[in-house]
Amino acid sequence: MPRIRIDVDGPVVTLRLVNPPMNAFDSAQRLALAAAARKLADARDVRAVVLYGGERLFAAGADINALAAMGPEEVRGWNRALQRTFEDIARLPMPVVAALTGHALGGGLELALCADYRVAADNAVLGQPEVRLGIMPGSGGTQRLTRLLGPAKAKNLLMTGRQVKSSEALRIGLVDEVVPADSVYATALAYAHRLAQGPAAALEAIKEAVDQGADAAIGTALALERALFTGVFGTRDAATGLRSFLDHGPGKASFGDPAREEGPEDPRRAEGPALGSDADSDDEKGGTA
C-alpha cells in the first residue's frame, strides 16, 4: 500500500498521508514523501500543494516502536533523512497549505510547520510532546516553532510538551485559520486554488524572500528582495499583470503557465504507488522509522 496518496484537482496537488491508524512516520512513509517532494519541485503545471492526513487526524508523529529500538548511530541517520525530507517540502517553490484534522503531534506538527499556511479543524490538537519521552523534536520543531512563535512561546510548548487546542493555536499564531472539522480539507483546497491562480514566479519569489530573508541581516535580506524583484519583473506574468492594470484596472489580470524553466515530467502523470516506491539513493543505512 502506498504511504502517500497523490490527488489532483487541476493545478493543485494533494499529498495525503496514508499510514493507519495514526499516520506515524516510518521509513516507507518518509521515502514516499521524499519521492513526491522531488517530483513536485520541478513540476511546471503544479501551482500549489495541500498536505492532508485524512478526516480523522493529520499525523501523530514518529514510529515510537522503531525509535526505541535504535541506537545513537541509527537514530542520527534516521533523523538526518527525515530532516532532509521535511526541508524538501518546506522548499517547494509553490505555496504549500496544511489541512490539519484531529491530532498533529511530534513529527506531524513538524511537517505542518513546513507549510506556508495552516488550516486547522475546530477540534484539532497540536503539540510537540517529545520531552515527555525524555527526548526532543529533531525534524525542525525547535527551529521552525521559534521562528514562527518567538523563543518564549516556542520554549513553552517544547519544554512542557503540552498539547494545545486549535483555538489557542490560532491565538498564538501556530495555525492561520480554524474551521469546522468537516470543512478543513475543502477550505485548504479552496485557499490553495486561490493561490494557484496567481503569478507562479512572483509567488515563488515571495516565498523565497520571506523564508530566506527572515534569517539574514536586514541589508542582506533587502539585497535578496531586490534581486528577486528584478527577476520577477522580467517574467511573462509581470508583463500580463502590468498591462492588465493599465488597460482594465487592478485585480483583473489572469495569469498563465508558470514562468519557471521546463522541468521533469509532471508528477500527476505518475501513479501514487510509483512515487512511493522511489527510494532515496543516499538514504542512511540502519534507519527503520
Would you write up a description of this structure?
It is a single chain. The chain has 289 residues and is an alpha/beta fold. It is 46% helix and 13% strand. It is built from twelve helices and nine strands. It has helices spanning 27-41, 64-68, 72-90, 107-112, 141-149, 151-160, 166-172, 184-196, 200-213, 218-233, 236-248, 272-276, and strands at 4-9, 12-17, 48-52, 96-100, 103-105, 117-121, 125-127, 163-165, 177-179. Strands 1-2-3-4-6-9 form a six-stranded mixed beta sheet, sandwiched between helices. A three-stranded mixed beta sheet has the order 5-7-8. A hairpin with a 2-residue loop joins strand 1 (4-9) and strand 2 (12-17). Helix 1 packs parallel to helix 3 (72-90), helix 5 (141-149) packs across helix 6 (151-160) and helix 9 runs antiparallel to helix 10 (218-233). It is globular. The relative contact order is 0.17. The model is unreliable at 259-289 (pLDDT under 50).
Q: What would a concise description of this structure say?
A:
By secondary structure, the chain is of the alpha/beta class. The protein contains twelve helices and nine strands. β1 and β2 (12-17) form a beta hairpin.
Give the tally of β-strands: 9
Mean pLDDT across all amino acids: 89
**What's the overall geometry?**
globular
> Percent range for helical residues?
40-55%
Spatial strand order of the main sheet:
1-2-3-4-6-9
Distance between the termini: 17 Å
Order of helices and strands: EEHEHHEEHEEHHEHEHHHHH
Radius of gyration: 19 Å
In terms of quaternary structure, what is this? single chain
Count of discrete alpha- or pi-helical segments spanning 4 or more residues: 12
- Summarize the biggest pleated sheet: 6 strands, mixed
In terms of per-residue confidence, which ranges show pLDDT below 50 for 5 or more consecutive residues? 259-289
Percent of residues in beta strands? 5-15%
Structural class: alpha/beta
